[in-house]
Amino acid sequence: MTYTAEKAIILAAGFGSRMVPVTLDTPKPLVKVHGTRIIDTLLDALLEAGIEDITIVRGYKKECFDELLTKYPGLKFIDNPLYDSTNSISSARAALDLLEGGCYICEADLLIANPDVIRKYHASSDYLGSFVRETDDWCLSEKDGYATDYRKGGTECFNCYGISFWTPEDCEQLREDIEEVWNQEGGKDVFYEFVPLVLRKDNYQVKIHECQKADVVEIDSFQELIALDPTYKHYKR
To answer: What is the distance between the alpha carbons of residues 97 and 212, in angstroms, rounded to a whole number?
Structure first.
């Protein structure tokens, strides 16, 4: 069976503390690298794949995201007022009513170097990752064709990027499981992806959508931003 990606939810509510000082003025997804906003690379890839139903969950300096409407007038926004006191599960929960059909859930701060990592058609729910010999970042292993053992740091595994696709059936299950975990003790401190990949993993069969390491650039710190775009060496707030 082939599933169609009909919509995308982009989680963009966080502060981006490791990117200070540039994020003191600008939400991390709106930071420019060589003149292009980080989030534009994701939005362009989604639109190129024919996915036009796009909702951004925003929080920190939420009004700044309105500038996107000039280039992307079809965007929709949801505000997450709990962004500064909870983890990313609150952003996913804020968009639960939209989590249906075939749906992407994406982090907003990934620089997409190869737009082909976003695709319209999928064989199952999947999570984007590149094979690595060793990593100290979040990763998945593969067993019997499916993703398993989500953890931080590993060998002979897939380095995870925050881009995932969920089938209509799994969207329905996610709505139930996210709400359940949210209402449990400690549930508000959970990364949303822990729900399908760890806490309720038996409810899902997620494949790994393999990409190349160069296809997606993660900028985790201000120093990494400078390394990519040296003009920030002299950045002054």
So the answer is: 33
List phi, psi (to 5°) of 176. Answer: -70, -45
How far apart are the C-alpha atoms of 149 and 71, rounded to whole Å? Answer: 40
User: Thinking of the domain 3-234, which architecture would CATH place it in?
Assistant: Alpha-Beta Complex (3.90)
- For 228, half-sphere exposure in the C-beta direction (CA atoms, 13 angstrom radius) is 20
What's the sign of the alpha-carbon dihedral 209, 210, 215, 217? positive
Query: Side chain identity at 194, as an amino acid letter?
Result: F
**Is the distance from CB of 62 to CB of 154 less than 8 angstroms?**
no
The closest of 129, 92, 112, 132 to 8, measured between CA atoms, is 92
Burial of 3 from C-beta contacts in 10 A (0-12 / 13-18 / 19+): buried
Domain ranges (residues) in the chain: 3-234
Taking only the tens of pLDDT, the chain with its 237 residues reads 799 999 999 999 999 889 999 999 999 999 999 999 999 999 999 999 999 999 999 999 999 999 999 999 999 999 999 999 999 999 999 999 999 999 999 999 999 999 999 999 999 999 999 999 999 999 999 999 999 999 999 999 999 999 999 999 999 999 999 999 999 999 999 999 999 999 999 999 999 999 999 999 999 999 999 999 999 998 987
Q: Is 116 helix (H, G, I), strand (E, B) or coil?
A: helix
Contact 184, 200 (CB under 8 A): no
Rounded CA-CA distance 145/4 in Å is 20
SS3 state at 93: helix
The owner of tokens 């859930």 is 105
Q: Which two tokens stand for residue 167?
A: 């089938």
